[in-house]
Structure formats: C-alpha cells, structure tokens
C-alpha cells in the first residue's frame, strides 16, 4: 500500500504535480498564447496579467513569476477601505503583539468561536519581525464553522500563507484553481493570490496559519542525504486553472451577472481592508509560471532518521523551510518540521528528545492524522486535556524543555534492541521553528499556561 493518507474527505479536483516546476494550465483550450507572453491580442479576448512573487532579477532557479490570462483585469475595483472584523476571537487589530518573556507556554485547548468563517475565524497567536519591512513571520489560529459569505474573497498582502488544518477540511478556490486541503495535508497560498474558502459537507475546520513576511517556503537542501527523502518534489500538488464561465463567439466570457458585487478582503500590515469589484475574480482561463498555490499530503513525508545509535537533530524532519538570507548560514525565518509516525531503531539511546535549549523558538502542536470519524481525535466538540483536539505550546528563547517524568521513566526502561513503530495515537506533531522570538498577542498570552511542565515537577519536590 502506497505511503499516503487515506482521507475521509474525497478530493474532487485534479492537480499538476511537482513543486518548483514551471507549470502551465488551461481551463479553456488555447487560452495561453504561444511563445509571446504578452501578445497584442491574447487568445479568446483575454487580458494578460502577471503576478511577480519575487524580484525580476532573482536567480533563475528561485524566481516566482506567473502569467495569467483572464477575461477582466483585476485592476478594476473600488477603493480599499479599512475593514473592522469582529469575531468569536474578538476584534482583529493591526497592533503588533508585545508579550514576550522567557517562559514556556502551553495552550491545552484554544477557545473556539461558536460561529465564524475564514475572514472572521482567525486569532493572531504571535509574530516576530514586521510585515511592512518584509521581515519575520506570524502564527494565526483559525476555527471556522461556515463558508465564507457569497462572493467574498481573501488574500494576504503581508506574506505567503502556510495553512495547516488540525482537523476538518477546507475547499480553497484560488484565482489559479482549486485545492482541497484536509487534516494531515498542508497548503501554501502565495502572497497576494486571492481565494475563497468553503467547508466540505459544512463541517467545521480548525488549525493554524503561518504567514511568512519574508521570502518563500521552499524544500530544504538535502546535502549528503542525496536526492530523495523527506518531502519529495513529485508529491506536491499544484492547482489547475478553473474558469468561471464559457466561450461565446470565440471570446472567453465570465459568468458575471448584472449588478453582482464581489468583496475583496486583503490583509496588509496586519490590518484587514476591503473593496468591491463587479466581476468574478475566478476568470483566469489559463496561467503559466512558477508562482502558484500548492498542497502536500503529510502522509507522503519520507522520514530519515536514527538507524544505529543516538538521537539526531530534528532538522531531519523539515518539510518546508524559509531561509533567512543575510543571517548566519543555515538560518531560517521559520522551518515547518514534522514528527510523523516512524520506526524507532536506535540502540542504547534515549527514545525521546533530550533536555535542551534552542536559539530558535519552537511553536508545536498536533494534527489529527487518523481519518476514522469514530476516532476521539476527530471529535471536534470534545475538549481534551492534551493536543487533541486543539492545543499547542511554545518554547521560547533558550527555555529548557524535554520529556515529562512519566515519559522519561518509560523511555529509560524500553528494550532499545527491538525496533518499535510509533503511531502516535492518530495525531502527528509539528513544529514551527522560528529564528526570532515570537511576541504573543494579548489573547494568546491570557489563555496560555506559563511554564506548566516545570511547575508540575516542582510541586512534587
Ligand atoms: Fe525542542
């Protein structure tokens, strides 16, 4: 059986395959002009539009540029004005988080709003850097119970969005096509690409978003590991073009209805804005380039690890990395690291992370990887006392962390001469490892336990 997740939610879409490839996709045959990217008259009466995700002069193997061929230019919209968002998480504010101290934090179970959609169902957990300076990153918690309102779309102008559903699924319609993203999958939406999110079967979805202000998520270099392993290029799935309309008399006509208004919500400098346009944003009949939305099934991650003795660095589990160019070599703005089901085979080795302090900050949580609807991890109404259904932790600057007393007792008595498969009870842990300390929002700070592991142990002394 192929090592991939057997998802409970069907994916009705088809995809292009391969991350980093130069892709092209036509929803209407002949929509992409041959050779000339910007012909005087593009096919089917379309307009050429370009999304530049990187500098024009980026190295050839790193540039992110895509040409779109659409029936209306997205230039045609009203003025953007500030949008006040009130949700179950309270008003969203553009104020930068300020709570920063040397403690570890733990959130046994995040509060969840009764009713929210993609625009209203976010709470900023913390951030570092500054989106205006294109530095750093932000981590958001989301919990959504309903589709985005009709004819509403969203985009982040602050950065690329790594979307990590912890449970449930998201049906994401982007300007460049659809992605169905379910628990145990991740998606990346490039900066500025507009999208609309609905919920398959109307079921709630919650999880995390890592918004990258600087650079792009890329696969880590493998160095002496060679050419395969970890997240393989071929397993990334890229959206295919979708055109909301048809061809009439040789011209691509979007299915706009008279008087129909679309609301565009965009986040810039942490602040939501909105404007109106009178045509569908999903009118891209074809596109070609390297800047596109994609997704990845975490069940396809191929872990490499300890095979004789000792515990090696968790960088072995890096799925995506955003390098920090200009910093010390090897430094990342943020790494997305997985701790997946795997075999433990190291002899005379502590099969747990040893106690350590890290110059990087470690935000950690768990994704429900068990697709069985009867699994307790899939009971999204249940408030559990650990990661499932919806908790997380943060080890800040040089805060020592490691196993609990109980875990350590068990680990010290394990027969390490016999391999053991770790299935992790239907959840897969992940870490967002950030270079700079995360300053927490007031909301996140108030609902966090501070230094809980040490408190528990000190109380027994
Ligand atoms: Fe750690």
Automatic annotation (TrEMBL):
Alphabetical list of InterPro entries matching this protein: HgmA_C (IPR046451), HgmA_N (IPR046452), Homogentis_dOase (IPR005708), RmlC-like_jellyroll (IPR014710), RmlC_Cupin_sf (IPR011051)
Domain named Homogentisate 1,2-dioxygenase C-terminal: residues: 300-448
Coiled-coil stretches: none
Superkingdom, taxonomy of origin: Eukaryota
Keyword annotations: Dioxygenase, Iron, Metal-binding, Oxidoreductase
E.C. number(s) listed in UniProt: 1.13.11.5
Pathway field: Amino-acid degradation; L-phenylalanine degradation; acetoacetate and fumarate from L-phenylalanine: step 4/6
Record's keyword annotation contains Oxidoreductase: yes
Protein's name in the database: homogentisate 1,2-dioxygenase
Organism expressing this protein natively: Apiospora aurea
